[in-house]
Write the C-alpha cells for this entry.
Amino acid sequence: MVAMRRTVLGSFAALILTAATACTITTEDPGYVPPAPLPPLQQLEQASLVDAKGYSTGDGAISFITEDRSIACSLTSSRGEHVNLPYEQNNYGDSANNKLATVPVAHCELADYPKPRAGDVKDDCAGTNLGYLGGVILLTPDSTRYGECRSGVTQMEAAYGPQGSKAGPLAQLPVLGEGQNLEGNGLRCSAYNGGVACGNVSAGVGFFVSPDRYDLISGPAGGASAAPSEASKTP
C-alpha cells in the first residue's frame, strides 16, 4: 500500500513538473525597436493583394474607407477634370465629356488634413488665387496632385469631420484593413502607416497621405517632395 501511494505521488509530481515546464512566459524586450514602415511604393509592390470584388461599386470604381474613417479612396477613372466617384455628384457621365480621354486614376478624400505646401498649389482658382484647399489627392498613371479649388468641405469632412453626419454613401463603403492592398486599372492603393498610399508602381509615381502629412512621389527623376513631419492643417 505504501509503495502504491509513493507511485501515485510520484506520478502526480511528474505531471506537475511536465505542466510547469510546458508553460511559456513571454516578457517584453525593452530594447526592441519595431521596423520602420516600408516606403509607399515598396508597400504597394510587396503587400499581398486582396480580392477587389468586395470593393467594387458596380460602376467601374473600386472604393474603400480606412478603419478609422479618416480617408476614403477610389480606384476609378476620369474624363478631364471629371472623376467617376460613386459617393458624390459629378459630371463624369455627361455626354459632353465622352470626347475626353478616359484615364485611370486613384482619388482620396480626407476628413482631417494638412494644408497644401506652396509649391504644390497647381491652380489659380479662376484667377483669384483663393480657395485652393487640401483634403483631396489625385493620382494618374504619370502624375500626382494634392489639393483642389473649392468653396466648401470635402465629402469626407462632411461625413466624418468634427461636425460630420456619420451617415450617407461614405458610411456604406467597405473597410480596407491596415496593410491590405487593392489594385484596379494598373494602379494600387494600400491602407498602412496611419494613412493610404496609392501608386503606379511600374512608373514610380504615387503618394502617401494621412491626416497629418502627405508625400508626392513623382518618379525616379523627380523623387518625392519633402514633407514636414507635422504639416499645418486647415482650420
Q: What stands out?
A: The CA atoms of residues 49 and 207 lie 18 Å apart. Residues 2-22 form the longest helix (21 residues). Residues 1-6, 15-20, 226-230 have pLDDT under 50 and may be disordered. The longest strand covers residues 71-79.
